[in-house]
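[Solved] Which block belongs to which protein?

Original post:
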Amino acid sequence: MPEINIDRSFIKISAISVLCVIFAGLFGYNFASLIASLNPGNLSDLAYILIIWGVFLALQVFFVKSFSIGSAVAFIQTLAIWIFLPEKFGGLNLLAVFSLFVFLALSFAKGRRELNDYLKIRFFKISRRAGAVALTGVALFIAIYSIALMSASGANTISKDAFNFLMKGSDVLIAKIVPGFSSEDSVGNALKSFARVRLPEGAAESDIGREAESLRRQLSTSLKFQLNAEEKVIDALYNILVLKLLAVSEYSRSASLAVTAVIVFLLAKSIAFFLNWIIIFITFGVYQLLMALNFMHISFESQNKEIIILD
């Protein structure tokens, strides 16, 4: 199938590429600040930057034809993030950065391949698939780099501040499954929230209380840790984590870091899933605006194949 040809303006392509690099650098700066402070409030700033960066990454797929140019821009973006990282060297640190570069390049390649495979420009399908690859790379980068910092510090487990940050960041996701859940709530109240999900709708509070107490006893037996109904969920979970990890071998401690990496990756990936759709709709609005401003227009080549022309 013939390749989609795009008449490109060097200045316009350069502008989009430069914006990609700028927002990649801002992402790196905010990520470094988040690591230093472990303040959940900074997570929203990082998400906003990631959304804007994602918009320009998506636009790049539509406006840049050459894989070599796309890969070069991906490499420069990766360098822009790497510059701001507090720990730049070390095996895991470099692996995290290299993984990000590979996924950014693959995202561009996948988007271009999707664009070339169809007669019509399927904006949402192309954006969704390319964005999913790029955001997977970001999630993998965050997970590997987080474990690299833990490994470099000699920690056998995650610090209390870092654990609190992760738990508060996951509260919204858990609350979608268990309404009313909060890691800042007491163990007793949290177990009542779980009990309400398990019991039939409209169950009496006395039944909910008994079910919650039964759950507390079962968990205490299974975990070999006495759960205090008055203790905060976030504190109880951290105490269980520390108790379990202090009791295992060095090999198991290394394995626990790997498990932590998987948890961080899944948490970041689940957030990225929702961000990807926000990015897609914002990108579509920008795409339509650029077309209205005559930044580019849609034309046709042989076989009625749609192409993008930068005016």
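(Second protein starts here: sequence line, then its structure tokens.)
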Amino acid sequence: MPVKVQYLLEKKTLTPSDAVKWLKASGIKLEETSQTKEVIGKFLSNWNLTYGFLQAQRFSEHLKMYTDQVAVFAAISRIGEKIISDFPPAVYMYIGIGRSPAPIMAFLESRCCRVVNMPLSDFRPKAKEWSITDDALPGERITGERQKLLFEHFDNILHEKIKRRKVVVIDFASPSGASLVAAREQLETYFHLKKVEIEVHALCMCTDVDKRSVESTKDKIGKPKPWNSIHQIDRWLYSNSRTDWASRWHILAIKSFEGLANENFGEAQLSRLLKGQHFDGFAEYGSFKLLSGASDYEKYRADPTKIAGYRVLMEALKDVKALGLDKI
């Protein structure tokens, strides 16, 4: 239904040019770019409301809300399309770790990709035994008992869902990516024990501000140690393992600055929303802290509680594509 303005007893359907003139006449400035006009056109055709002639400010506020939302959804779409391009769905399955990557996972699922959301929060333990990842992980070693619970958790979530020979594990890092390091390592161990040949990649999304920290995490693990008396054994035995690990660690930096002409507005908004965990309420599952103990795990397993907001977000992203808003 179109947007209308009430002029005394007459209702007039707004066109984009009418809307701009009305706002100008009411003293409200509007940046007249081709993008603005396109957004106004979509807003007027998809918003069902009648405004009084003196309600231009209210109309402007609703338009701003709609424009901001479209910009964020367009940024999600662009990032999702890049992931699909870099990790083709015919080859890869996508595993989202925790709640942080919810909007990206919802987009991938809206494009009919094979997606699994893995509930796992505050998870940064070292491997059960020494590993090349030790320097990058701040937590204690995972115990045999906790690892057993973790693999039961993987069984429940991944049961018969692995239909690809490669998976990419996705998380949003704030700031170092340690959770993704730990999750990837435990999934690799899980697949090895299951005797399933799966190549595991990790995609660490982060803000451009945190990119250096994520690269530092990669270097701690992926760079062969130098030739000296302290690291000789590591250099001999683990250089190939380190370079192989680094080849499957990928970084996707999201712009956090809008730019002088607001050219990065949508991505910067998305960056702030992810950093502030504002999408957590739209994740498929709630928070699950396995390391807090067996009793919490039993409670979670009895009622994993899927969140309806995830499906709402996925349908909204489908609508964004259907309406062509992802290209604005």
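Accepted answer:
You had them paired correctly. Confirming on the second one: Strands lie at 4-7, 10-13, 50-52, 92-97, 115-118, 166-172, 199-207, 249-254.
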